[in-house]
Amino acid sequence: MKDFVIQGKVVRRELYLLLGCLVAAELVNTAAILHWGRPVLELLTQLGYVVVLALLFYIVLLLVRGLVWIIYKIFKIK
Amino acid sequence: MNEKEQMDLGRRKFCLDLGRMTGGLALLSAAPWLKACTDEKVTATQGETARIGMVGTGSRGRYHIHNLLALPHARVTALCDIYPPNLEAAQALCPGARAYTDYRRLLDDPEVDGVVISTPLGLHADMTLAALSAGKHVFCEKAMALTMEQCKEVYDAYQAGDRALYYCMQRMYDPKYIEGVQRIKDGLIGDVVGMRCHWFRNADWRRPVPSPELERLINWRLYQEFSGGLMTELATHQLEVCNWVAGRLPSEAVGMGDIVYWKDGREVYDSVNVTYRFSDGRKIAYESLISNKYNGMEDQILGKGGTVDLTKGVYYLEEDTEISGMRRLMDSIRQGVFAAVPTAGPSWRPEYRNEYVPHPLVQGSVSVNGGQSMVAADHDGSDLVMSAFCISCISGEKAENVVEEAYGSTLLCLLGNQAMAEGRTVRFPEEYKIPYMKF
Ligand SMILES: NC(=O)c1ccc[n+]([C@@H]2O[C@H](COP(=O)([O-])OP(=O)(O)OC[C@H]3O[C@@H](n4cnc5c(N)ncnc54)[C@H](O)[C@@H]3O)[C@@H](O)[C@H]2O)c1
Questions:
Q1: Model pTM?
Q2: Engineered SS bond to B313: which of B50, B58, B299, B366, CB 3.0-4.6 Å?
Q3: Residues of B with CB under 8 A from a CB of A
Q4: ipTM of this model?
């Protein structure tokens, strides 16, 4: 059986992406806070929602990247 | 803790802690009957005991005995019932109490200051009148009486005398209702535009009968000679709350009642829908059905800005500023996604109920009665009414507005029954209006 080797730089890239998603989700939270005039404390109290949203962003990103990769492979074979 | 302190603590459990409630002392103006169970009243009667005689020791009577046994300022001295098994069960709870089978003998007993009447509705009026004229203070189960004439007779006798009279309308003493009504009056949900109350059960209301001649004594709820059916048994409580919230009574009623499922020889409806209309057009939609319990029991007060469900002790706001920004964002995305559903050409918007966020009316735990028990829920206010009654037995003071509230709600139940029986809109009869009532 062949071993899969996940390189350190791949892990680092994914972590950066996840962090980016977290920042984007917290930005959405900030926009919602500003829009509905909610207390700033919600930046912290709504972290649960923020994490879920970040994961959602990450999954969407994963799907998009997968799609791009498939399209790239198809064209390369041709 | 010494014995005196223990007794003090015991008493305090049975007075309303107004200080802990948002409305504080202001609650006393919206619910003046609470004056009988304040801390001061409890302290003023310290060291004294009300001697109580029980008339009717069936399921509700024995529930009251349990509450009385927990009260430091009460002692059950006499018991009366015509059905031996129920009398014996009560004697087992109160071994020192004298037992009677004729309530008039109990009323002659000088060791009785106050009488608790928990008998079938058809007997309430005669027993209450006899007890008042015997000089006893009276605590009677709801509803007030079986007919409007009887209600008026009892009301007049009470007004003319100096004895206290209580009705067990426990919602009036339930903290979540008290707080809820006060907050509605303070504008929590804006203008009250309507009320929706219902009580659904899936049970036949029957009790097992050991011998056929006992049918009417045991299953009295099913026969018109003793009972006004779902309206007097269930709706009384809920209509009282509506009157309390509105600060007035509806002036007319229209409704339909039927025996839909339990066609077992009963004489009262097992399905009722009654609409009451206030003079300004607002309505109470009342519904009760005992062959499906999906909707349970709810007392909903509908306001332009929100809804209060007093049964659960929660409120919902139409524009909920208490919801976090993230939550509102997600709600609006969801509403956007599901807003337009194309079906067969033109699009339509399914108006499902929004997912409102419940906010509690009272901090801390509240007891919520699912409405399925025929006897009672724990700590639903019944213990407080009983405590207030015992304090009145000691102090001799009448309770404010309790009889008036019971009179109003009982008359509305009877009006609903009349509207259903006659199949027409009936107006609140002039001859039964009392000065307390506003329309
Ligand atoms: N406030 C509430 O939430 C609530 C709840 C349940 C019942 N109730 C009310 O309590 C009352 C009693 O209901 P219940 O469920 O206990 O009924 P029940 O049938 O269990 O008890 C009634 C008792 O009265 C006795 N009785 C009948 N005729 C009598 C007479 N002439 N003298 C003495 N005793 C007599 C019966 O033998 C029986 O023991 C009813 O008015 C009912 O509406 C109120």
A1: 0.85
A2: B366
A3: 321, 324-330
A4: 0.78
